[in-house]
Amino acid sequence: MKLFDAHSHMHMGPRGLVIPAAVEQTPFTFDGAAIMSTHPRDYIKVDSIVSGLRDRDYRAVPCYGIHPWFLYDVLTSSDEEVDWLGELKQRLLDHPDAIVGEIGLDGNRWVEVKQSDQAEESIWKRERVLACPMELQRKAFEEQLVLAAELQRPVSIHVVSAWGELFAAFENVRERMKHKHDQMAVKVMDGQRKRQKTKTKLLPPKIYFHAFSGKAGALPSIRSACAKGNIPLEDIYFGFPPAIKNFYAPKTPGIMREIGIRQLLLETDLEDATSAWDDLKRGVSGISEALDMTESEVATETYKNVHRFYFEPV
Ligand SMILES: [Zn+2]
Predict the structure, then answer these.
(1) What secondary structure, in 3-state letters, does the chain show?
(2) Which CATH superfamily hosts domain 2-311?
(3) Ligand 1 mean position to 4 CA, how many Å?
(4) Residue 208 C-alpha to ligand 1 middle, in angstroms?
(5) Residues 11-68: pLDDT tens digits?
(6) How far is the CA of 47 from the centre of ligand 1 (A)?
(7) What spacing in Å lies between the alpha carbon of 189 and ligand 1's midpoint?
(8) Which residues of 157-181 are buried (b: 16+ CB within 10 A; e: fewer)?
(9) From ligand 1's centre to the CA of 245, what distance in Å?
């Protein structure tokens, strides 16, 4: 039985390419990983890890996009106007097997603003602001979603304390895509202008909420926001990496049950992949306990899911 890491940042780790391997006797083997960019400077490193895995006969998926934690740096670090969106589009066109990720919204990543150069200030005077203003996050997120929808690529999404913003972004993207399709779909039929009524996808065709941090109560709203963009329930996936403490939260087993085995992906979210094998196994154990399934069933089912998400054509 094979385990695939659906969300890895191995390219950012101290060792780079690491093949996660078991030291114990196990029925499981490592199958491969999806390597998630966080910044345009990652793209070449992602390509190198993907080639390294494929050269060793593992499966690998390149993922390109800008993570909300690094967005401010991308938008402000260069003197010249950075065409990060054009670069991303070209990357995706050059790599038809690539998906869009990691992109998203983070309302809980703060940086401290220095009030003055005086070293010893009262901690109460310290001010903190979001690592990237939400307005800029929203704009970049929507642009990347539109790109994924236009090119019909799946997305891996990070959302922390920004669900309201996510729903608003989805609504904007649906409207933008609807407008584009309406313009294309107006056809002259029987001498009259009629609109072609098709279930055109108005959001990226498959959506993966990685490191899901929402409550079970948020799931109906998420499903409905996707359904309004003609993305059915079976194309919405969720992951819970053991490296993020939410994995161990008391609410998590109930949320996993509410999501159901068919929509769960195994993921590590790790940079240093030396502990990736342990985390993949922890993921299997956690789901097995939450859903009252055997570990073999969990491995088999999540592997089918990863196949549908990454390797079946849209
Ligand atoms: Zn990540």
Answers:
(1) CEEEEEEECHHHCCCCCCCCCCCCCCCCEEEEEEEECCCHHHHHHHHHHHHHHHHCCCEEEEEECCCHHHHHHHHHCCCCCCCHHHHHHHHHHHCCCCEEEEEEEECCCEEEECCCCCCCCCHHHCEEEECCCHHHHHHHHHHHHHHHHHHCCCEEEEEECCHHHHHHHHHHHHHHHHHHHHHHHEEEECCEEEECCCCCCCCCCCEEECCCCCCHHHHHHHHHHHHCCCCCHHHEEEECCCCCHHHHCCCHHHHHHHHCHHHEECCCCCCCHHHHHHHHHHHHHHHHHHHCCCHHHHHHHHHHHHHHHHHCCC
(2) Metal-dependent hydrolases (3.20.20.140)
(3) 15
(4) 12
(5) 999 999 999 988 889 999 999 999 999 999 999 999 999 999 999 999 999 999 999 9
(6) 17
(7) 48
(8) bbbbebbebbbebbebbbebbeeeb
(9) 14
Q: Per-domain residue ranges for the chain?
A: 2-311
Q: Is the dihedral of CA 112, 116, 117, 123 positive or negative?
A: negative
157 CA → ligand 1 middle, Å: 9
Output the six-digit token pair for 137: 């996050």
Write the pLDDT tens digit of every residue in 135-187: 999 999 999 999 999 999 999 999 999 999 999 999 999 999 999 988 877 65
| Residue 105 CA, ligand 1 centroid: distance in Å | 12
| Segment 193-204 mean pLDDT | 74
Ligand 1 centre distance from Cα of residue 117 (Å): 34
Q: How far is the CA of 296 from the centre of ligand 1 (A)?
A: 26
271 CA to centre of ligand 1 in angstroms: 9
Alpha carbon of 8 to ligand 1 centroid (Å): 7
**Cα of 202 from ligand 1 centre, angstroms:** 25
Which of 117-121, 124-128, 277-281 is least confident? Answer: 117-121
- Cα of 147 from ligand 1 centre, angstroms: 20
